[in-house]
Amino acid sequence: MTKHTADAALIAAYDGVVCDLDGVVYRGADAVPGAPKALQDLRSRGVKLVYATNNASRVVAEVADHLAGLGAPATPDDVVSSAEAGAAQLARTLPAGSRVLALGGEGVVEALDRAGLAPVRPVRAEEDASDPASPLAAVLQGYGKDLRVRDYETAARLLGAGLPWVATNDDATLPLPWGQSPGNGAYVDLLVAAVGRRPDVVGKPHPPLYRLALDHLGTDPSRTLAVGDRLATDIDGAVAAGIDSVWVLTGVDGPSDLMAADAAPTYLVGSLSELFQPYAAPVHDAGSWRCGAAVARFVDGALEVRADGGSDVEVVRAGAAALLHEREAGRSRDELVRAAAETLDGLVRDAGPR
Fold first, then answer.
1. If you classify domain 10-54+206-276 with CATH, what class do you get?
2. pTM for the whole thing?
3. Does 285 participate in catalysis according to the annotation?
4. Catalytic residue status for 77
5. How does pLDDT run across 102-129, given as a tens digit for each residue?
């Protein structure tokens, strides 16, 4: 779960960071404690920083203002969104100025415009349907709170005619203060059911958004680190893009989510401030996993974890390494292993680093 061995700050091995937002920098409107200061410290060390988000509904200036208001270093040029990744992909194949259906919020509209394409809202596309002099060249679909059923009918008509189709992301749900709401992926599936094909998807865990972030940074992939809280999007996406990753435990995913994930993070930290500390990596030793002074092992199917003076995050790393070992051995569905993963979730909630 790591390749870092030098007795130096973890971040010393990297020139650039691609940072996720929700669950890493903020939760809702509020900052994750200590995150803005850690991001300032990254910039002070000369590390290049870009924020990458699957949220295609907000324009990049709005995202940057939110970050700056929390005390994080951010300008619109420091933010890349899945809408921008989608627009960039279309711009590589379409002539400049091509008219593209902007099936989404303002973030989709702005991204197309910034990419040199002409965004057309669904209402306008509906009005132009009978005008052969105003053809549309593609559809870019992202989340939009104000989209109507008729807007999806317009998109279905165009997609049924074979237009290229790019989706910003395929997240099935969108977390809101009251719970889970349908995300862009749910609306993508709605159109898939109608037109019988799937779009190209550019947001995490697919590689294009991370590749766009790398272009912004100008850093070598081997010297670039992705930071995120969601295993199935941030971490799996980093693996797909060929860059190292840090899983930070300030968001929604816990150790039990490792059992359903495809990839494994390069590093596991409790908070962004740990990027500036030496990294104690788990080591397999005679059936146990040791991380610093902490030890984890399976005994009769149950996970036994001892701190032995180790820090909270070392306990979690040792336990997570033991879980990954069981997952790789094909035992992720075993009832005792899943119970052990939930036990480790409890350790994160009760005493884990935040």
1. alpha beta
2. 0.90
3. no
4. no
5. 999 999 999 999 999 999 999 888 777 6
